[in-house]
Amino acid sequence: MRPDMSTAAKGGFRVLLLFFCLIALSITGICDVVINEIELSAPNNESMWIELYNTGADPVDLTGWMVKVEDEAWMVTIPLSGIIDPLGFKVAEGKKRWARTGNGTVSLFNAQGETMDRASHLIDHSRNHFTYGRIPDGKRTGTSADWALLRASRGMPNGRELQVG
Questions:
Q1: Cys bridge to 80: 34, 62, 94, 101, which one at CB 3.0-4.6 A?
Q2: pTM for this predicted structure
Q3: Whole-number Å distance between alpha carbons of 97 and 88
Q4: What's CA 104's distance to the chain center, in Å?
Q5: CA pair distance 153, 158, nearest whole angstrom
Q6: How far is residue 12's CA from residue 105's CA, in Å, rounded to a whole number?
Q7: Distance (Å) of CA 63 to CA 68, 79, 82, 83, 87
Q8: pLDDT digits (tens, 9 = 90+) for 98-150
C-alpha cells in the first residue's frame, strides 16, 4: 500500500514546482533579443553597426542595454535604448572616428550587465557591403554555423543574397 503525501508536503511540492515554472518562463524571455547582423568593416569610411533582432512574441525595452565590440587592442560600447518590437530589428550604430580593424568579438548585455548573446571573434577586412548575419534571422545554436557572410540587410531580414566562395 502506497502512503499518501501529507498536505504540507503537497503544498511544498506545489510551491517548488511553481518556482521552477517561473524560472523557466523568465529564462525564455530574457534571451529573445539576439545579435543578428554585424558590420565591422564598412565601406567608404562609414561606421560599424550591429543589428539586433527580437525573436520573441513581446516587445523588449532596451533601456540600459549595451553592445560591446572588442578586438585585442581596443574595445567600444554602444549604449542602447528604446523598444524592439516582436520579430523586429534595431541597429546599434558605432562612431565614424572609432578604429576599424575589421576584427572583433561582439557581445550584447542587458541592463543588469548579463550577457544575452555573443558572436565569437569575426574577421572582415573587405570594406564592402557584405556582413556577417544569421540565417535565418535569430538562429542561435552557439556555433559558427549560425553565421554566414551575406549582403548587408541593415534593419531588414537577412539572406536575400549570400556571398559564395
A1: 62
A2: 0.75
A3: 28
A4: 15
A5: 6
A6: 45
A7: 15, 8, 6, 8, 18
A8: 766 777 899 999 999 999 999 987 777 777 888 889 989 998 888 888 888 88
